[in-house]
Automatic annotation (TrEMBL):
Residues 117-180 form the DUF1587 domain. Residues 693-714 are annotated as: Disordered. Residues 387-445 form the DUF1595 domain. It comes from Crateriforma conspicua. Residues 450-577 form the DUF1592 domain. Pfam families: PSCyt1 (PF07635), PSCyt3 (PF07627), PSD2 (PF07624), PSD3 (PF07626), PSD4 (PF07631), PSD5 (PF07637). This is Planctomycete cytochrome C. InterPro entries: Cyt_c_Planctomycete-type, DUF1585, DUF1587, DUF1588, DUF1592, DUF1595. Residues 714-786 form the DUF1585 domain. Residues 596-692 form the DUF1588 domain. Residues 33-80 form the Cytochrome C Planctomycete-type domain.
Length: 789
């Protein structure tokens, strides 16, 4: 096998090669490749005689990269053909790699590595919220985003259609309406409080789905009935953020543990069945007070109920519940003794929003009964209004801009005033134009080295998914962000802010596809212990785990082989882990023989890599190779049919996949895929550990699971634990993979062939700390790949 270092060394050369491939490539192909890869029946559909040398053809470029990679990894020529002469292979890799890398580098010199890139939906929502000091949800108003390489922020996959432009305009209008309404508001924030009778059914003889009064408390029983536990009294008269506070206790709890319940919101009627998650808790015999904060749209109400799928469920006839009907059934329940809701403004006060919209301009309000008009003090000059417009535009565009570059907006403001439009309305209309400008929606990144303001934006959107704060902008204004130590200090500071503390969670939503966890629903007949409470705890486990690794600057191998995780009592019971009490997530040290250490055994990962009914070693294997193990799998060759190779006589998934390794068209990739896929067969589609496959609706009564396999390097393993141990020692590859994904997520461009040497340099900088995760993140942030367009 040709060492990887040969490829790395070739990429640092700056000597340009012509467009045509060097002669050494043709010689190598003639000597070692054309016997198999020639003509219409060429193996793997790769006919090297007709493979285009036009590297502007993306498909041709990808094929050339695949050729280089397979020679580098020793996969080509195949073992049964005979190994290539090492000197010939070195020469081929050196020349071919330089040819490919120099082509991309020449393109970057003129166009930049990253093409025009705009804000994602989440970035747009958070930017408008932070800019206007509001927290109105905006993402639900936006159209879906295409994913490329698993990410929504890739520049090459960000179209802008007339429909999307109209959607953007609508979102801007909603955001501005919320901001101006917040400033003009005169009515007090809503505050309500109820005792148990206030949230229970009003007519004791009426059958309904509201709580019933029992010994002075409002009680809801464990039941499958939709919307049971809804409380009509909590219906909100206007959309807003609300602090919810209630005192709860368990009724007839199980012998071990309490009664796990959910808090959700919705209209709670059959023609609007969707319920939105707020939180979950474990009610115990002793009452305790719980608090949540949630956005609740106008007309929606709360539903609080037992929702643990392992609890015994009551049965009620006719789809409604009568008073006392739950009592004889001896099922667990939830009792509420009081509940309050208080409207809040979590982003900041109205004065904070007014400071953004009007600056030092004096504002006069007029109105009553919640209906108000307000105006800028008539003594304000046009120059003062124009100065305020410039301040707003500089905030929105995330950089200092000379006023003469904003002439178009200033003329629009003047025209509005000339037409007699009130100053408030004229400013709002001009702000609307500013927020629809490409300078707001797109990243302003010059070709080559980024300027300080572009660095500030790239860093802030990478770590916080939103615009730079004032301290970061001030550092950019002073020209300090080209200093690596200053950049690291700013990055660490951002990670410690409330916005930055969501970095690993936001990243994992795309890296691990956690934002798609609700796309499938495990079959409840086969996976009866799975429920929304478990799913929420799985997500919380993964997010807390990743945050802890970053906080501890842990070695990268802990991503796959940590000796701890985060659990509450419900998830611990689901995993079969003892001695974990309470509904608060806490760090739990795992015994040496536990299968749950590391991301590969997290229920969230196992669920998103299954379809809700069964598992596929191929799908899980490909996902694991690409997302965690750092061995991306290319698409199958075009001449390989979608069906399996000859599987006559196969009796198991394993035997079917072994056929792949016997097919030369499939073997190269399946040696990598199948090992990971077989190891994860130890976990079912709902994330629980198993030793046997399911048969029908019966658990653990099918054929035995065989999680053994052989890694591409020849190491064998008997089970998932041994597999995890082996891959944890591939820490250089794990670090390289994490750096790859951070660069893709943070720059809007995946790591390409010409970037490989730079990634290798990033990873090598952290080798002495065992590729510590925070060190690796800082190495990415201070790298040329991150600091250049």
């Amino acid at each position: 096998m040709v060492p990887v270092t040969f490829l790395t060394l070739t990429l640092v050369s700056d000597r340009a090669i012509g467009v045509e491939p060097p002669d050494s490539i043709s010689v190598f192909q003639q000597d070692y490749c054309l016997d198999c890869h020639q003509g219409p029946d060429a193996e793997a559909g790769l006919d090297l005689e007709t493979l285009s040398a036009d590297l502007d053809d993306q498909e041709a470029f990808a094929r050339w990269v695949r050729v280089v990679d397979r020679v580098r990894d020793g996969e080509m020529p195949p073992e049964d053909y005979g190994a290539a002469d090492p000197d010939d292979a070195k020469r081929f890799l050196k020349q071919a790699s330089r040819w490919l890398a120099d082509h991309q580098t020449r393109q970057d010199d003129s166009l930049g590595r990253v093409r025009g890139r705009r804000l994602t939906n989440r970035q747009l929502e958070k930017t408008l919220q932070d800019l206007l000091v509001i927290r109105t949800p905006l993402a639900p108003l936006m159209s879906g985003e295409p994913r490329l390489h698993g990410y929504v922020g890739i520049a090459d996959a960000q179209p802008m259609s007339p429909y999307q432009l109209q959607t953007h305009l609508d979102v801007v209008d909603v955001a501005l309406d919320a901001a101006f309404r917040k400033v003009s508001r005169t009515e007090p924030l809503l505050e309500r409080q109820w005792d148990a009778a206030g949230i229970a059914r009003k007519n004791p003889r009426r059958r309904c789905r509201e709580p019933e009064m029992r010994q002075g408390r409002a009680v809801v029983w464990s039941c499958n009935m939709p919307f049971y536990g809804r409380m009509e009294a909590t219906r909100v008269p206007r959309s807003g953020w609300y602090d919810i506070r209630f005192t709860a206790s368990a009724v007839k709890p199980p012998s071990e543990g309490g009664v796990w319940c959910t808090v959700r919101r919705g209209e709670c009627v059959s023609n609007s069945p969707l319920m939105t998650w707020i939180g979950s808790f474990e009610a115990e015999s002793e009452p305790r007070t719980l608090e949540y904060r949630a956005w609740i749209p106008k007309g929606e109400k709360l539903e609080i109920r037992p929702n643990d799928s392992t609890l015994k469920r009551a049965r009620f006839a006719g789809g409604q519940v009568g008073t006392g009907e739950g009592e004889p059934q001896n099922v667990p329940g939830l009792a509420l003794s009081e509940l309050s809701m208080r409207e809040v403004q979590p982003a900041g006060s109205a004065a904070d929003t007014a400071a953004v919209l009007f600056g030092d301009l004096a504002i006069a309000k007029h109105g009553r009964d919640g209906v108000v008009s307000f105006q800028v003090d008539p003594s304000a000059t046009r120059q003062q209004l124009s100065d305020q417009l410039v301040r707003f535009a500089q905030l929105a565009f995330r950089r200092d801009i000379e006023p003469d570059r904003l002439v178009g907006f200033q003329q629009m403001l003047s025209q509005q005033l000339d037409e007699g439009v009130p100053a408030v309305d004229a400013l709002r209309a001009t702000y609307r134009a500013v927020l629809c400008s490409p300078r707001f929606l797109y990243f302003s990144e010059p070709v080559g080295r980024l300027d300080d303001f572009a660095i500030a934006s790239r860093l802030s959107y990478f770590l916080c998914q939103s615009m730079p704060d004032q301290e970061l902008l001030e550092a950019a204004r002073r020209g300090q962000l080209h200093n690596p130590q200053t950049l690291i200090r700013q990055a660490q500071r951002l990670l410690d802010t409330p916005r930055g503390r969501s970095f690993m969670s936001d990243f994992a939503d795309q890296w691990l596809e956690l934002d798609q966890i609700t796309d499938t629903e495990p079959d409840r007949r086969r996976f009866s212990e799975f429920d929304p409470i478990v799913q929420d705890a799985m997500l919380a486990e993964t997010r807390a785990f990743l945050n802890q690794l970053l906080k501890d600057n842990a070695p990268v191998q802990q991503i796959v082989a940590a000796d701890f995780t985060f659990l509450n009592s419900r998830l611990a019971r689901y995993y079969g882990i003892d001695d974990v009490a309470g509904d608060q997530l806490r760090l739990v040290h795992l015994p040496d023989d536990s299968v749950r250490g590391g991301l590969m055994a997290h229920g969230s990962v196992l669920k998103v890599t299954a379809n809700g009914t069964d598992t596929s070693p191929v799908l899980r294997g490909v996902w694991l190779c690409d997302r965690i193990l750092g061995t991306p799998i290319p698409p199958p060759p075009s001449n390989v049919p979608a069906i399996e190779p000859d599987t006559r006589g196969s009796t198991s998934i394993r035997e079917m996949l072994i056929r792949h390794e016997e097919d030369p068209n499939c073997a190269g990739c399946h040696r990598k895929i199948d090992a990971a896929g077989f190891a994860l067969e130890s976990f079912d589609a709902s994330g629980q550990f198993r030793t046997r496959y399911e048969r029908g609706n019966s658990r653990n009564k099918g054929p035995a699971v065989d999680p053994s396999g052989t890694l591409p390097g020849g190491d064998e393993f008997d089970d998932f634990t041994e597999f995890r141990h082996l891959v944890s020692h591939e820490d250089h590859r794990l670090a390289e993979n994490l750096a790859d994904h951070w660069i893709t997520y943070g720059t809007g461009q995946r790591v390409r062939f010409a970037d490989r040497a730079r990634v290798e340099s990033i990873v090598q900088r952290t080798a002495d700390s065992q590729y510590a995760i925070n060190d690796l993140l800082m190495a990415v942030i201070t790298s040329p790949l991150f600091l250049e367009k």
